[in-house]
Amino acid sequence: MAPKRGLCPTIPSVSGPSPGTLVHHGPKYGIWTNVHPVLLFTLYPIVYKTSENQGIPMVKKTIVVVGSGNAAISAGIAALEAGAKVLMLEKAGPDLAGGNTKYTAGAMRFAYETPEELLPLLSNPKDPRIPNTDFGHYTQEKFKADLLCFNDDETLTPEQHALVSESCDAVRWLAGHGVTYDPIYNRQSFEKDGRYVFWGGLTLAAKNEGVGLFEMELAAFQRLGGQIRYRAGVTGLLTRGDRVTGVQVADESISADAVVLACGGFEAGKALREERIGPDWSVAKVRGTPHNTGDGLLMAEALGAMRYGRSGGCHATPVDLHMKDFGNLDLPPGERKNYRKICYFLGVMLNAEGKRFVDEGFDFRNYTYARFGRAVLEQPGHFAWQVFDAKVLDLLYGEYHFEDAHYVEADSLEELVPKLAGADTSSAAATLQEFNAAVDDCTPFDPTTRDGKSTHGLEPDKTNWAQKLDTPPFRAYPVTCGITFTYGGLKVDERGAVLKATGAPIAGLFGCGELVGGVFFGGYPGGSGLTSGTVFGRRAGRGASG
Length: 546
Ligand SMILES: Cc1cc2nc3c(=O)[nH]c(=O)nc-3n(C[C@H](O)[C@H](O)[C@H](O)COP(=O)(O)OP(=O)(O)OC[C@H]3O[C@@H](n4cnc5c(N)ncnc54)[C@H](O)[C@@H]3O)c2cc1C
Description:
By secondary structure, the protein is α/β, with parallel strands linked by helices. It has two domains: 1-313 and 488-546, FAD/NAD(P)-binding domain (3-Layer(bba) Sandwich), CATH 3.50.50; 316-482, Succinate dehydrogenase/fumarate reductase flavoprotein, catalytic domain (Flavocytochrome C3, Chain A, domain 1, Alpha-Beta Complex), CATH 3.90.700.
């Protein structure tokens, strides 16, 4: 929808309060009659006296935050901490409020030097597994190196430096607001010599995953006095001169001192996907909310905001071919991630021509899963089959054992291949035979490390975790591409202010979360999206209220 622009009324002027009292100034302008009654109470300025200001009238800033995911709530909490009044406007109803955040596993990547730093963050520090766990460490240098792997030879951007250097502090800051975390034993550790060994630098997730994170954050936001309105999709930005002075929600104008856009990327906007990522992307499934249709980007761009980052870049993973077009809204949010299918590193992937098309064992799946959705989309027919044998069935993540997972099974590869609907069966049979013949039998299989157990002479080779497919039953799962979120977005400064192409900030406009560009390019180390939302959300909340 084309963003609306227009003039908004001046926020009513205020007079000084009597000492020590709160004074609410009612609306003076006709436009306020359009404002929701809750807002009449909420948004007009409050004048108050503190011991610091010695009786000099202070006006609380009013901040509107657009969206209610992790980035939005982080911005809201930061703005409340800074003394502002905050209203969050959410397009969805209460069920889908929280956006993609509520679809997540709640995993948050952050740098830490020692395992002891994790203990104060845990929901249950007395978990009996903890003394038997090797959490390792994940330094800022390692986090930077992980990001660099996806930068296609470009150096780290200022946004990436900020993500890394503020990551630990952001997670601790949320903990200070009552967010607790659990070690991700089931997906990020393997048992080795009787100990739980974590791998890949991603160690903790919010208690009760994305839904838990949203609920803990929202509770903190509301405890601090923040307000949220549902079914209040922002359709335009109000401006006076060069300044953003509020937002439009359908035919209602809402004034604010600053607006924080935290309303996601454009992954759910089919037309924008086709325009900015490529024509084939119209067929991608959307793993999360249907509401992230790029509204914030379009509204900001209409005011001259600079497009920044990799416009055609996105996080996309292999997902069940038969999942619905959006994250399954009929499931409890905690189960919605089960359509993802990212254990390809334990087997092989075949396309419609019966050929392999990626090195399934290129790296830990944390570093490949966000790219392999695109690889699947680029195959003929936009689908693939993931093939496993019984040796790894116990290692497959829960999503493969999910009640709604689609797969075919057989007691031999010969019987399995004809069941691979849509694939060239004779070519698939040949590919599997060649794969088995190319596996290095001498190197032991070890999923806790890049084990170097490789094939030799294939194009492409599988360079880690290559085991022969030789133990029945054999299983194959049909997958397609599921887009998770988009990488291209807006350029913001250190305060989170949205910048124009000239480098000048758009007064009164801030941004955070998925719609900030320059954070991810060719790929994504798993668990960085939520951390990015909190890092840039905190900056934007503080910036907007400063
Ligand atoms: C299935 C899945 C699993 C994931 N797992 C992880 C994980 O474990 N760890 C991780 O770090 N990341 C994960 N991600 C990525 C993560 O979800 C995002 O990086 C993060 O949630 C983005 O936060 P956000 O606040 O920017 O956007 P969102 O959480 O999507 O919030 C945006 C909000 O804006 C609202 N909105 C949109 N338009 C408007 C409008 N016009 N007016 C008002 N409101 C509007 C939307 O309804 C939504 O509520 C996952 C994503 C998906 C889909």
